[in-house]
Amino acid sequence: MATEVKEVKRKEMKTKPVNGNGHGNGNGTYDANNIHVLKGLEAVRRRPAMYIGDTGQRGLHHMVYEVVDNSIDEAMAGFCDNIIVEINQDNSITVTDNGRGIPTEEHPDEKKSALEVVMTTLHAGGKFDHDSYKVSGGLHGVGVSVVNALSEWCWVEVCRDGDIYRQEYKRGEAVQPVKKVRTGKKTGTKTSFYPDPEIFSKIEFKFDIIASRMRELAFLNQNLSIDLIDHRSRKEVNFKYKGGLSSFIEYLNENNTVLFKKPIHFQKTRDDIEVEVAIQYNDGYSESVYSYVNNINTIEGGTHLTGFRTALTRTINNYVAKNNLLKKENITFIGEDSREGLTAVVSVKVRDPQFEGQTKTKLGNSEVKGVVESITNEYLGAYLEENPAVGKKIVEKLANAAAAREAARKAKELTRRKTALDSASLPGKLADCSMSEPELCEIYIVEGDSAGGSAKQGRDRRYQAILPLKGKILNVEKARIDKILSNTEVRTLITALGCGIKDEFDPAKIRYHKVIIMTDADIDGSHIRTLLLTFFFRYMSSLFDLGYIYIAQPPLYRIRYGKNESYAYSDDEKDKILKTLPNTGISIQRYKGLGEMNPEQLWRTTMDPETRTLLKVTLSDGAEADHLFSQLMGNEIGPRREFIEQNAQYVRNLDI
Ligand code: 0RA
What we know:
Elements: E1 2-6, H1 35-46, H2 48-52, H3 57-76, E2 82-87, E3 93-97, E4 106-107, E5 112-113, H4 114-120, H5 144-149, E6 151-160, E7 163-170, E8 173-174, E9 179-183, E10 188-195, H6 207-220, E11 225-230, E12 235-239, H7 245-252, E13 264-270, E14 273-281, E15 288-293, E16 296-297, H8 303-322, H9 335-338, E17 342-349, E18 355-356, E19 362-363, H10 367-386, H11 388-415, E20 442-447, H12 449-458, E21 464-469, H13 481-485, H14 488-497, E22 514-518, H15 523-539, H16 542-545, E23 549-552, E24 557-561, E25 564-568, H17 571-579, E26 586-590, H18 599-607, E27 613-617, H19 622-633, H20 637-647
Parallel strand pairs: 2-11, 15-17, 20-21, 20-22, 22-23
Antiparallel strand pairs: 1-27, 2-3, 3-10, 4-5, 6-7, 6-10, 7-8, 7-9, 11-12, 13-14, 14-17, 15-16, 18-19, 23-27, 24-25, 24-26
The structure holds 3-[3-(1H-pyrrolo[2,3-b]pyridin-5-yl)phenyl]propanoic acid.
3-[3-(1H-pyrrolo[2,3-b]pyridin-5-yl)phenyl]propanoic acid binds near residues 74, 101, 102, 128 and 130.
């Protein structure tokens, strides 16, 4: 999930209009009069980002999801239980499903095969659309014709009624009419495409990115089998979960100590809204709640999540009152208490979802809140009554959380001192920059005072701030918020960033739009980096969505020859440089830490925007990142060791 961002200006992207005259030119077109189709495709190719978000890594992978979504629709309609996704040698993609097959008969209005209409008409929809849970707004559900328009080539084979039909396309235009190519017994649809290099900056699919979305889809669609095959590396995985959301919860809690073994899991349809929820608690302090609408992760939440949260707190409070469980303590839980150590997934299927918010991932339909709330009340209430042993454990956990909250409040009130969280006074260790526009400013969080010193001398003080951190920050996976806030390094960091934390977190207040983690290229450095990323993930996660979190890339080697020198950022690069040099008079220095570079070298190799490389850390999948962070930093030692062993060679390029 980490994507490399070279900070050099990208060449202006060439987008060639498709047959600008609106008529087929014989170059891949068999129907010269189809002005309307060509206009649609041209619009997509002119402004691809409007349809798939961007033309970088995210948009590229979105192409795959768009095709898979159509097969998922067929699965949700009950006609498909197997999807195969193949990444081919040449980075083309093939998606095969065993559904009914896209209809191929002549479309009554368009006078051509329905298959061709679906593949070449923007928002074809209507009769040949699935009447299931189509998504309006957002980037999903833009249709497979968009993928087609943005592909250098594409072909589809449909198996129906004993025959296999096929059509090929070039940049969205059909090359010839739909043809019967052979006979076939089964039914289904197979789509293959190669994204257009004129549109996308780089055509290289990441196995892990596709895998985590396929895993998620398999969790969300119980019993659906999804195979992912990478022909480049011969990797292969199958995702199929009998437990659905229960399996999802078990996966999320794989590295945590849970309070009870079997997740609480229920599913019910009311007023045409399908609600499915799974819940489990672990002995940690953070909240891991993921919500979905029509298989789309609603990272900004919305009415379904609000309904769930309200019901959770209320149902547990009712249970406590009804059974006289906390007579002495006289506590009423607030929402925050009921979410400590909570892992939950809330998935709804809604017919006409309205998406709002900055990233269009917040459900707006008001009718959904009450439905999720009442279903959760009923099922969770009944579950607690029937499972008093589990009920007792949950209530104990929440009572602890409430007591800690109360103690923290009292302590704060008693001291009443201005805390370091108050951004009025900046910490002394921070060497701030002189400019104050956040969009121009960056902060380097540097491991250790000595590297901090070099960074302070080497930086451009107009827009670069330096915050040296002493040693390791607290592992936030293992501590409650009050303890986290009593840690000096963490407080310094929060104050320097200026955006607050938890309830007071406001990304609009952040003082720098680039937060750059700069640590040594050794085990300690990678541990500190992971601690920092975990902290940002648990307490300021929207900074990732906003694209504010970066990792600096210091060089590994300095190579001197005669009066010249070069820096190598990887072993490969070092070998490449050495090959270009005669064998005499070369000296190679391997950097063990940032402290070995003088200020000028640090600036030139790692901090100068003209020459540096930064890794931008993005979370393409929150649940996947959650699993990874709990694996890296959680309670269970076994899985962590296993992870580090498996990934040791990738530490420099850890994909989060
Ligand atoms: C509409 C109607 C029918 C099938 C599909 C859509 C369909 C579309 C896709 C896209 C990928 N895989 C798909 N599988 C099926 C079937 C109508 C019928 O047979 O009665």
